[in-house]
Amino acid sequence: MTEQRKRRPTLKDIAERVGVTKMTVSRYLRDPSTVAAATREKIALAVDEMGYVPSRAPDILSNSTSKAIGILIPSLSNQVFAALAQGIESVTRPAGYQTLIAHYGYSPEEEEKKVASLLSYHVDGLILTEGRHSPQTLKMIKAAGIPVVETMDIPQEPIDMVVGLDHRAAANAMVEAMLARGKSRILYVGARLDVRTRLRMEGYAQAMEAHGLEPRYVLTEKHSSFTQGRELLDEALAQYPDADGLFCTNDDVAVGALLRCQQRGIAVPAQIAIAGYNALDIGQSVSPALASVETPREVMGIRAAEMLLARLGGDEDAARFNDVGFTVLIGESIG
Q1: Phi and psi angles of residue 329, each rounded to the nearest 5 degrees, phi first
Q2: Which segments of the chain have a pLDDT < 70?
Q3: According to the model, what pLDDT value does residue 316 have?
């Protein structure tokens, strides 16, 4: 027989423990300075001992603001989105805003559900990490009438505000750097095939075609990982044994491919140049150091939060667009 769930302590429980009214406890929770010092100490002790957690539901229902920001991210395991969230919270926390983070696994249908859930908590604003959304998601956001910032890329038809970078241009620049080092049979190695991966594929193809070269791809819809990079390297060389370069969709795939090359005795970059994307720390910890595209995720989070809070503060002239740019890191892995 399962143990009955323990009842959470209430405002009334705290009041009875201390011997004061619920109103006194409520005043203490809103502003401790409004309660006498001796009573303040007793209430604080009772709250601590009983593990009381105040409910914000009444405040949310009775006020026009919840002091909460909803954040939608596609992956909980990807360092890219962890850095974005850290940047956001470095701004929202000091301003007194809570963040509610929801994960949607790159699925538009799941994003729609999570947006509905966040809006049900009356969040004051949303920060999204996708530039394409279902019609129902757009309808719900429009009906909510709250400020929204789309991050990570630059959508063609923004909902409201945007903080991102041009993934086509970044990919193009990296492939140009590889071509400049004498590589001409460069493959694009991709996983997941989400919107940003496809933008990078377009940038890669533009660079190759500008030099009269044929774009060639080795792709999977599976999650990117070191293991996936290893498997894709084997698949790439089985399909294109003459390949002399790999531009990988991210650093996880690139590092996996690099390590597999070392296991197979393939010299990097002499035989095959390898480049990644996002400039994660792991890429600089391997040898040779990985060439990559540095994307300032934490900066994106900071600027997205600043723009959102400026709008919430009544600044209708606040910036609506911010291209954070990118940096191509010429690592040893491309020569």
Answers
A1: -90, 115
A2: 1-6, 55-64
A3: 82
Q: What's the confidence (pLDDT) of residue 55? A: 66
211-230 pLDDT per residue, tens: 999 999 999 999 999 999 99
Can you give the three-state secondary structure of the chain, one letter per residue? CCCCCCCCCCHHHHHHHHCCCHHHHHHHHHCHHHCCHHHHHHHHHHHHHHCCCCCCHHHHHHCCCCCEEEEEECCCCCHHHHHHHHHHHHHHCCCCCEEEEEECCCCHHHHHHHHHHHHHCCCCEEEECCCCCCHHHHHHHHHHCCCEEEEECCCCCCCCEEEECCHHHHHHHHHHHHHHCCCCCEEEEECCCCHHHHHHHHHHHHHHHHCCCCCEEEECCCCCCHHHHHHHHHHHHHHCCCCCEEEECCHHHHHHHHHHHHHCCCCCCCCCEEECCCCCHHHHHCCCCCEEEECCHHHHHHHHHHHHHHHHCCCCCCCCEEECCCEEECCHHHC
Cα-Cα-Cα-Cα dihedral sign, residues 281, 283, 288, 290 = negative
Sheet holding 216-219, edge to edge: 216-219, 186-190, 245-248, 273-275
Tens of pLDDT along 66-113?
Answer: 899 999 999 888 889 999 999 999 999 999 999 999 999 999 999 999
Cα–chain center distance at 198: 17
Phi, psi of 111 (to 5 degrees): -60, -40
CA-nearest of 110, 151, 123 to 66 is: 123
pLDDT for 116: 93
> Which residue type occupies 254?
A
Name 134's Cβ contacts closer than 8 Å, sequence gap at least 6. 108, 109, 111, 112
Residue 307: CA atoms inside 13 Å, Cβ hemisphere, count?
A: 25
Q: Could you report the per-residue pLDDT of 29-58, keeping only the tens digit for each?
A: 888 999 999 999 999 999 888 888 776 555
